[in-house]
Amino acid sequence: MSTVLLFLMGLSMVARAEEMNSLIPPPLEGTAASIQAILKEAVHPRLRWERFRDYQQPLEALYQVRNYEPIWTVNGQLTRPVRAAVKSISQADSKGLHASDYDADLLLSWLHTLDQAAASGQEELALFDTAVSLSLMRYIDSLYVGRVNPRNVNFGLNIEPKRLDLARLIDELSRDERIGERIDSLEPKLALYENLKKALTRYRELEHDKELTALNLPLKLHPGEYHEGVAALRRLLTALGDLSAAEGTDVAKSNEYVGDAVEAVKRFQERHGLTADGIIGKSTLALLNAPVTHQIKQIQLALERLRWLPAQPGGAHLMVNIPSFQLYGFQNGVSGDKPDITMDVIVGEAIDKHNTPVFHADMSYIVFRPHWNVPYSITAKEMLPLLQRNPEYLFKNNLEIVDKFSSNTPSFLPTSGNLELLATGVLKLRQRPGPRNALGLVKFMFPNNNNVYLHSTPAKALFKKRRRDFSHGCIRVQDPVGLAEFVLQHQDGWPRARIEEAMKSAKTSTVHLQTPLPVYIFYSTVLANERGDARFFSDIYGHDATLQKLLDQGFPYPP
Question: Considering just the CA atoms, what is the radius of gyration of the chain in Å?
């Protein structure tokens, strides 16, 4: 090879190397280098929850597009949006969160320090900038989809479709002086959510009311009796909203437990799931003296769960709250203050672990005069022993043995051989339609993996019970005709008279809904009205305790 050719090849290689070097960005310096180093380590030494592997990727994406330059300061000066951002974070407690989780006090102090300092070091600016961005990401995520993934508490709700592009959102917010309003808009658009926030404000005020002390009352106080502790009782009931302010200051009757005070105690008992008899016994006194922090935690847990719900529909939908044993129907979306229908329900037994699951599905059809296809678990554990002892049990309860759950399938006699096949699951058990059918005269179907649905029931006496967890997981409704009317209200040709006729007919019939109806089975041990008056319910499945343990762990929560 000639010397000239070698020389030309050398020049070409040098040129190519220079071209490649020009594509490599120069090393970062100053604040940008410090920000890059913090993100690489995924540890922020100033924050309460210093490790942030779970937010490393969106933070990297946020700063990379800006070449790792600060986004909350310009030439060392604070931007207007950062002040609004920190103010919003500092209000987290009013939304059922904890401002301390997002280092609100630290950020407020940092703002003051940066305002006072003539100049701040590059490392300090980097720490401040990344602290604001990380805290804001955590706060927005908590506000929008909740802190704990519902899958980790065995709830069938999926928050993944709701997740935000945090890098892009924070980039936009850092330029928006209306950042506080935009953050607030991420909260659930539910009347129930707003009502619970009002209740939370009231109970936080009670928490700091020094005049409210433990009641010194006897173990049992009946209406008409006198006691020196009644004056303090009146003050408490007034603060809780069960006694009007005018009634609560009636000094003439302050130590006499009569009239308005008794009625106020009844309201208190009703709100806490007790028998509203006005007698202050052990249970009522315990709740009156319970620390307000317990109710605050209940409200916080309720707000957390409401954030798990999927994007809310704009039209009709149903909600069933398990702890309150009630169904609520809304015609015009979730923004309405009051449900259009309300009825009592029976849910899955807590003692035998037949818990009604928490999930969302769309109702697509109704079956009038349904068969009850007995689940194998109930067949094997409950029905089969009765059939083996007395085959007549089959006929007395309108049951039949079949090989499949279809309309025209033949039935089999309860011979010993068929009972063996029933035990193995080859044959199945179902109950014929009729007034004594376990599903009653109608079932409302929203296909789901839990095989749970709404239905009527012949066991109407159970609705008189205050606590109503008696089913194997499905939900029995008190007013099936009213529910069918609500579900079919926009379906032509289904007035109440026709619904009642279909329920009394000798034939099974299915009505497919023209528009699927969203159904939300959820779990909240506290509800509130538009005034913020709260009603509390027992944690029958222990879900509050489970969620509280996960929240107590702090960041990072299980994904």
Answer: 31
Instruction: Name the 3-class secondary structure at 272.
Output: coil
The pTM of the full predicted model, rounded to 2 decimals, is: 0.87
Give me the count of residues in the chain.
Answer: 559
- Residue 383: pLDDT over 60: yes
Which spans in 310-391 are helix H? Answer: 376-378, 384-389
Sign of CA dihedral 280, 286, 291, 292: negative
d(CA 42, CA 35): 11
Q: Where in the chain are the domains?
A: 30-189, 196-294, 311-545
513, 487 Cβ separation under 8 angstroms: yes
A 10 A CB-CB count for 551 gives 19
Between 292-308 and 543-552, two packed helices, what is the crossing angle to 10 degrees? 90
**CATH numeric code, 196-294:** 1.10.101.10
281 Cβ contact list (under 8 Å, min separation 6) = 219, 220
Angle at 243 between CA 241 and CA 245, to 5 degrees: 90
Q: 248, 232, 228, 246: which is closest to 288 by C-alpha? A: 232
Q: Give the tens place of pLDDT for each residue, 294-311.
A: 999 999 999 999 999 987
For residues 322 and 325, what is the distance between their CA atoms, to the nearest angstrom? 5
Nearest to 373 by CA among 348, 405, 403: 405
Judge whether 543 and 523 are in contact, CB under 8 Å: yes
The residue whose two tokens read 């059809």 is 365
Homologous superfamily in CATH for domain 311-545: L,D-transpeptidase catalytic domain-like (2.40.440.10)
pLDDT tens track for 172-229: 999 998 999 999 999 998 888 999 999 999 999 998 888 888 898 998 999 999 999 9
CA distance 441 to 458: 9
Contacts of 486 (CB under 8 A, 6+ apart): 316, 329, 331, 340, 341
Q: In DSSP terms, which residues pair with 469 in a beta bridge?
A: 347
Rounded to whole angstroms, the maximal C-alpha distance in the chain is 120
Amino acid at 357: P
What's the per-residue H, E or C state across 215-248?
CCCCCCECCCCECCCHHHHHHHHHHHCCCCHHHH
Q: How far apart are CA 451 and CA 473, in angstroms?
A: 9
Regarding predicted confidence, which is higher, 15 or 440?
A: 440
Peptide bond into 218 cis (omega under 30): no
